[in-house]
Amino acid sequence: QVQLVESGGGLVQAGGSLRLSCAASGRTFSSYAMGWFRQAPGKERVFVATIDWSGVNTYYTGSVKGRFTISRDNAKNTVYLQMNSLKPEDTAVYYCATAELSYLASLSRWYSDAYWGQGTQVTVSS
């Protein structure tokens, strides 16, 4: 069993920064892909960024490219999401997930196969 605990969310003004962390425990974290996803009120959960087991390969959804950076520290069983130049449209609950999947796997595969954290709220005021 894998447990994921997110932290680092909060309220920030537009243009500001936040750093989310997700600490994993349980099964072999270092060989799993990790991802950050977000869900805004009334909308579906969507990709933000994913990273492969090595930390070398990453994927970002278009709206966050150049502003967000995903990274991982396998020694600490932790994945991070550095969020800069935040916009009000980034407001959402952010979830981390881990799975024995390609970091490029489809969203449906992440939904069905991944372990998920409980989420952390990020609110960006204008």
**C-alpha-based Rg, rounded:** 13 Å
- Helix and strand run: EEEEEEEEEHEE
Anisotropy-based shape = globular
Q: Could you tell me the number of beta strands?
A: 11
Largest sheet: 7 strands, mixed
State the end-to-end CA separation.
40 Å
Please work out how many helical segments DSSP would assign. 1
Average pLDDT number: 95
The amount of helix comes to under 10%
The unreliable regions are none
The chain-level structural class is: mainly beta
Topology:
Elements: E1 2-7, E2 10-13, E3 18-26, E4 33-39, E5 46-51, E6 58-60, E7 68-73, E8 78-83, E9 92-99, H1 107-113, E10 115-116, E11 120-125
Parallel strand pairs: 2-11
Antiparallel strand pairs: 1-3, 3-8, 4-5, 4-9, 5-6, 7-8, 9-10, 9-11
Explain how this protein is built.
With about 130 residues, this protein is mainly β. About 5% of the residues lie in helices and about 50% in strands. The protein has one helix at about 105-115, and strands at about 1-5, 10-15, 20-25, 35-40, 45-50, 60, 70-75, 80-85, 90-100, 115, 120-125. The protein starts with a strand and ends with a strand. The model has no long low-confidence stretch (mean pLDDT about 95).
